[in-house]
Amino acid sequence: MKKRLYLLLFLICLMLTGFTQTIKNYHSFFAEATLRNQDTRLLVIRKYNQQSKLFYLAVNPSTLSVCIYPERKLIITSDSIKSFASLFPNSTYIKAWRMAKQFEKPLQDAGISHALPDRHGVILTIDLCPSLKPLDRIFFLGVMNQLDNIQQPIPITISVSGLWILRHPDDLDWLKRLDAQNKISILWVNHSFHHFYNKNLPLYLNFMLWKKTNVEEEVLLNEITMLENGITPSIFFRFPGLVSESKVFEKVMSYGLIPIGSDAWLAKGERADNGNIVLVHANGNEPLGIQKFIFILHQNEKEIKKGDWKLFDLRESIIKEAVK
Ligand SMILES: [Zn+2]
Fold first, then answer.
1. Most buried among 74, 155, 242, 264, using CB within 10 Å?
2. How far away, in angstroms, is 192 Cα from ligand 1 center?
3. Which residues pair with 57 in a beta bridge?
4. What ranges in the chain are assigned the alpha helix state H?
5. Are 158 and 238 within 8 A, CB to CB?
6. How far is ligand 1, taken at its centre, from the CA of residue 240, in Å?
7. Which residues, given as ranges, of the chain have pLDDT below 70?
């Protein structure tokens, strides 16, 4: 019943956004490519049709950035392969992917959950799990208030679920505008489409470990929803509740994605030290976490003003960690 409701909601939103934006034939497709008239080598990870045109999603294996390319801009230099890790084996991307794989076992916080312990500052990650409440815009305004004119744009990682996107078109537009205005620079992370949660189930049967979870749908439908709403998914994935086990973890990684945990979930009482991947929720459901983060910014105000304490880009921090 609940699933039908979600499907109906999804279809209504598709109608509102216009069928012309609908993505078709979206699937994993791993191949090496170069940008036409350039030497830049890329790893293609997805292939799809939109408005009768063919598009690829490709990751730069050195910078970890992901971009959308129309067919005419790329030259595919290898056939689609099953084992993408065999391409660019010494690249930062594959090193980071393997680094995450080493930490696949924990029930909570598997994947990469720490970076750059020796630097002053943290990596801010914000989860937007499904919620009926509006976005905590005041939180973003508070962060900008502390860091404006010091860091521009301010690097922020946002893990987003498809159901949040479909229910919050105005809030999503507001975030996209801040990004376009160069006030913040958002790295969008896949946080699954449905983000199943049942407060009565133990962790090992909850979130994506729920027995009816369709991992492919959670990963790919969320990417489709992100793309159809004008945001490009990064190469990272955050498990709902940070909960996973080896089988589901490996399945998610088989899409070429790098799972990201957190070593400072503020509302759970964890401290934010230098190099931590801090987790807060700005979906209206966790005021404590966002209050604590604003307090941390106030505590470090002097260092921030001197440029000695910063928010770091997740990609840059992981690159440094992967190649050290
Ligand atoms: Zn979540």
1. 264
2. 9
3. 46, 68
4. 2-17, 92-101, 137-147, 162-167, 169-180, 215-216, 222-228, 246-253, 287-299, 301-306, 314-323
5. no
6. 4
7. 1-20, 79-82, 116-118
